[in-house]
């Protein structure tokens, strides 16, 4: 079981039972590496699942050039919606999406926020089209995911 499969509660228990002698082992096995980025996480997922970046970008509704820049890490976004769009389009789980959001210094999805709850439900249902997620948000009078390059 690696870091991505362990809950924070499990990690907290392990850390509470670790002393300074075991600390280096804990750190190497249970913490994010500084070089890991959301772009690396997304690209690895896309590759592992046999998807094409072009298809993921198309489903995300981002411009092709901007989508590739985000996925290869040459650009970083300051807009949570853009990263969410890529995560949805790539078919990431909520847990993986939360990890990507945290890596990019954004708040994770939160089920007590109505807009996030709709997005989470769509993800749980396997929706990989930002257009379909936006339709669900719009039906409920909520702000749609804004993926324009502005």
Structure description:
With 150 residues, the protein is mainly alpha-helical. The protein folds into two domains: 1-31, no CATH class; 38-139, Orthogonal Bundle (434 Repressor (Amino-terminal Domain)). It contains nine helices and no strands. It has helices spanning 8-16, 23-30, 38-48, 53-60, 64-72, 80-90, 94-103, 114-124, 130-139.
What amount of the residues lies in strands? under 5%
Extended strand count: 0
Which CATH architecture of the largest domain is right?
Orthogonal Bundle
Q: Give the overall average pLDDT.
A: 89
CATH topology of the largest domain, anyone? 434 Repressor (Amino-terminal Domain)
Percent helix, as a range, is 55-70%
Unreliable residue runs: none
CATH class of the largest domain: Mainly Alpha
What is the H/E order?
A: HHHHHHHHH
Instruction: Give the domain tally.
Output: 2
* Structural shape: globular
From the N-terminal CA to the C-terminal CA, the straight-line distance is 41 Å
Question: How many helical elements?
Answer: 9
| Biggest sheet features | none
Which structural category do the helix and sheet elements fall into?
mainly alpha
């Amino acid at each position: 079981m690696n870091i991505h499969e362990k809950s924070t509660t499990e990690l907290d228990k392990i850390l509470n039972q670790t002393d300074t002698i075991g600390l280096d082992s804990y750190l190497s096995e249970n913490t994010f590496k500084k070089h890991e980025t959301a772009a690396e996480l997304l690209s690895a997922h896309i590759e592992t699942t046999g998807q094409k970046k072009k298809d993921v970008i198309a489903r995300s509704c981002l411009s092709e050039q901007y989508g590739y820049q985000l996925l290869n890490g040459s650009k970083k976004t300051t807009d949570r919606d853009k990263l969410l769009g890529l995560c949805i389009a790539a078919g990431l789980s909520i847990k993986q999406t939360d990890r990507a959001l945290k890596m990019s210094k954004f708040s994770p999805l939160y089920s007590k926020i109505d807009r996030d709850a709709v997005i989470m439900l769509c993800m749980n249902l396997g929706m990989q089209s930002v257009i379909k997620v936006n339709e669900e948000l719009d039906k409920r009078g909520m702000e749609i995911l804004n993926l324009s390059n502005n």
